[in-house]
Amino acid sequence: MPAAPAEAPVRAAKKAAKPKFAKTERTPVQPPDPAALIEVQHLTKCYGDLVVLDDISEKIATGEKVAIIGPSGSGKSTFLRCLNVLEDPTDGYVFFEGNNLCDLKVDINIQRRRMGMVFQQFNLFNNMNVLKNITLAPVHVGMQDLRRTRRRNFCTRLSNLFRKKDKKRPLLPVQTDAKAIRRYAEENAMRLLTRIGLADKASAYPSTLSGGQRQRIAIVRALAMNPKVMLFDEPTSALDPEMVGEVLELIKELADEGMTMVIVTHEMGFAREVATRVLFMDGGKIQEQGPPEKVFGAPENERLKDFLSKVL
Q1: Which residues form the ABC transporter domain (predicted)?
Q2: Which CATH number fits domain 23-114+229-312: 3.10.129.10, 3.10.20.30, 2.40.160.210, 3.40.50.300?
Q3: Residue 28 scores a pLDDT above 50
Q4: How would you write 53-119 as a 3-class SS string?
């Protein structure tokens, strides 16, 4: 009997490793809380046999500033990336504005438009100047919406040819064009750059900027999409110490303006000052949470006590 193809076990392994929710659409354990902007139910993430997130359920309300602290390898960044499904959950559910992001019928890209993400390493495009980096996503999304509206109107006009006069469907309004989309994106980008004092860097390329400047531009790039929530994944970890302050100051300003935030951070003083709630993670679980004054001033969890004794 001929031997089985060598790649067959590989295909079988890949098939077995696929996330559960990608195979079938599942009914949530319970309806999402309408008061929660973000909600996770029984969120689990595994890499092979390694359990990185272990059955986490949590809610984040509009206007909250949630800081996530904990030792390296505790699952903080993975949890954050699961909130907008940059990491596929192995099990559980993620809701944003009541929409189940693990539902195959939900357009995840449309949901992500309202979830700003700032990474540790800036992730700016080095072949584009600052203005282009900021306007790329708004222009792309605006053009997508314009093309979608035009396609729908074309189909409506076509179907109206076969309808009686009183049965014809109205066309969707088209209130913009490609030039207007680009002009608005550039005006908005310049307004945001002026706010952070970097309007003179609009034509500069990321490689010519300091780490602090690049991270502030990365924050502005996320704000250009007018998000409902900002997700920060250790935004100061790649910065020199003298550049940390200017980035944290911008985040504080956003917090004061009421922006909903989830921040993974090792800056304990910043978490104590800005957060309305602090989550302590260890071993893939939320071990303790509460207001900053309680978490930092009167911790109950022994692992949290040990962690704070080493970092404060």
Answers
A1: 38-308
A2: 3.40.50.300
A3: yes
A4: EEEEEEEEECCCEEEEECCCCCCHHHHHHHHCCCCCCCEEEEEECCEECCCCCCCHHHHHCCEEEEC
